Amino acid sequence: MVKAVVNSPAPLKVGIAGLGVVGAGVVRLLDQHAGTLAARAGRPIKVVAVSARDRRKKRDMPKGSWRWYGDAADLAGDPDVDVVVELIGGADGKARALVEAALRAGKGVVTANKAMLAVHGAKIAALAEAHDAPLAFEAAVAGGIPIVKALREGLIGNRIDQITGILNGTCNYILTEMRNTGRDFGEVLKEAQQLGYAEADPSFDIDGVDAAHKLAVLTSLAFNTRVDFRAVHVEGIRHVSAVDIAFAREFGYRIKLLAIARRTPRGIEQRVHPCMVPADTPIAHVDGVFNAVSAVGDYVGRVMFEGRGAGSNPTASAVVADLADLAAGRRAPAFGVPAVKLQPLKAAAMADYIGRYYIRLIVRDQPGVLADVSAVLRDHKISIESLVQRGRSEAENQPVAVVFITHEAREADMARALKRIAKLRPVLQPPAPIRIETP
Ligand code: NDP
Ligand code: HSE
């Protein structure tokens, strides 16, 4: 009798650069789910080489018999590595050099590096195509939520008109903890860092830059435009205070850092800033490290995705999804269409944005101050919907918080009005506006 010889399929051989929060999670997941993954992807996914800065560091992952490279760039030259997983971070430097070298060598690249993609995404996608090398980055946006695949594949039949997201886990965690526990901003940020949510430089998180990086990538996928990070209007959450959170509660809102990309007659709007969102909308209830992305398509209508947006395990889940695609031979153009077909983004100027505003002022409690502020708003064609002063100081001239809610106003008018308001003598701090959005 002749026996059939069944060859087991060759593994996908992976080199991982960066064994920090995300890298260690990827190694753990590949180890723990090795059998299931091999069955689902059609062949095993095997880590054969790794790189990090400190070889002696204790890491939360199983040990393996992989090759160690002190210089991550060497992974690109290892003939026994099929795919390089870049989990170092940073728009340039070692991470970018490694990614470009790996693509030039025809190796697949999987990365979670939204900073690099936001700044160099279109060029890197073109390089990948020039060398017929797959490039995948599910983990770069919204952690464990498979939003890249959803936009590129699940929603392929739609014209996307708007993307709205909570895209930074650190900020959402901070805003949620401040609201629920009254804890201090700095203390909660430290906790987010310990939990592995924050970027190496956490100002990227709290100043809105990380969310803007991710929005720039989503915009490209949704509208098939070249990634244009510089066109994103970015504001962070540093100026959001306990007073704002208390006022938000009183007015029936919650404060969220939203990232919004929208098709308008003026072009594509991309903006990241704190928003007052009505407390009865679904996105207002996305709390803690959770992210959410809602997309509006012409055929599907609104779809919403929610899940953990940062941390070791959720991010590893997304990285491994990309590896499984490469192992199975599934590939798609990185940004949905071939890089040469990505259109330059026609940006809608933020100055033309129209919306309602919450403006919180800290003013000296003295007669005439509210009339002066109202007059400036009137001079700039901004109409007031309501005005609230909380508590009256014991003595005249003490600081009090005052809030104006406006009807729809134009951003450029608002910016000019706020400049003038800041110069009024009784106004003690720069005005802190928060846009009101109903997503
Ligand atoms: P970490 O700081 O935890 O890990 C970075 C890793 O890179 C470390 O292992 C470090 O080595 C290694 N590294 C740094 N410089 C070099 C270098 N020059 N050569 C080789 N290795 C180097 O970062 P994260 O794991 O949090 O983030 C990695 C990437 O994933 C970033 O792009 C980040 O933006 C992205 N990301 C992170 C998420 C998260 O929740 N943390 C979620 C989604 C994306 P050593 O350990 O020896 O110091
Ligand atoms: N620092 C990022 C965040 C990590 O807090 O969302 C996930 O990309």
In short:
With 439 residues, this protein is of the alpha/beta class. The chain has 13 helices and 17 strands.
Explain this structure to me?
It is a single chain. By secondary structure, the protein is an alpha/beta fold. The chain has 3 domains: 12-140, NAD(P)-binding Rossmann-like Domain (Rossmann fold, 3-Layer(aba) Sandwich); 147-308, Dihydrodipicolinate Reductase, domain 2; 351-436, ACT domain (Alpha-Beta Plaits). The chain is built from 13 helices and 17 strands. The protein has helices spanning 21-32, 34-41, 93-104, 114-130, 147-154, 169-181, 185-194, 203-206, 209-223, 242-251, 312-328, 369-379, 411-423; strands spanning 12-17, 45-51, 67-69, 83-86, 108-111, 135-136, 160-166, 233-234, 253-264, 267-278, 290-297, 301-308, 354-364, 384-390, 399-406, 409-410, 432-436. Strand 9 and strand 10 form a beta hairpin.
